[in-house]
Design brief:
Layout lengths: L15 H19 L2 H7 L8 H23 L8 H21 L9 H11 L5
Helix pairs in contact: 1-3, 1-4, 1-5, 3-4
């Protein structure tokens, strides 16, 4: 999925781990933007566990992020950090951004909010 919200973020790094991480994060956000009802249900206090397909997708997303982050740390691309903490930070960040974009669609978001947010998330992980 090549998201309009992600602009030219796809494939603009020379590192395949960074490219794949950007793609996964952007696709997660784009999936919520294309299917905003899932987030609206959550905001309306409906229980997410009543929709098992969402749990499965979230678990698969988490596992994909976990593998990419672990690989990035192992290869010295990312700082040596607790993998679960990093993955939870990334997941919470893209979920929160997705919610804000869907539930506060009238806010004057910057055109590149997804691209710049994802880039900042990844930059915060990089080894110096």
């Amino acid at each position: 999925m090549n998201s309009d919200k992600c602009g030219h973020i796809y494939g603009n790094s020379n590192n395949p781990i960074i490219n794949m991480l950007k793609i996964r994060l952007c696709d997660y956000i784009e999936g919520h933007l294309q299917n905003p009802e899932n987030l609206r249900l959550l905001a309306g206090q409906y229980r997410i566990d009543s929709q098992p397909e969402n749990e499965t997708k979230d678990f698969e997303f988490y596992v994909q992020l976990e593998k990419l982050v672990q690989r990035g740390i192992s290869e010295g691309l990312f700082r040596d950090q607790n993998v679960d903490s990093v993955v939870q930070f990334l997941w919470a960040s893209v979920f929160g951004l997705s919610c804000l974009l869907v539930l506060r669609h009238g806010f004057p978001w910057q055109d590149d909010i997804v691209e710049s947010s994802v880039s900042q998330m990844i930059n915060s992980l990089l080894s110096l």
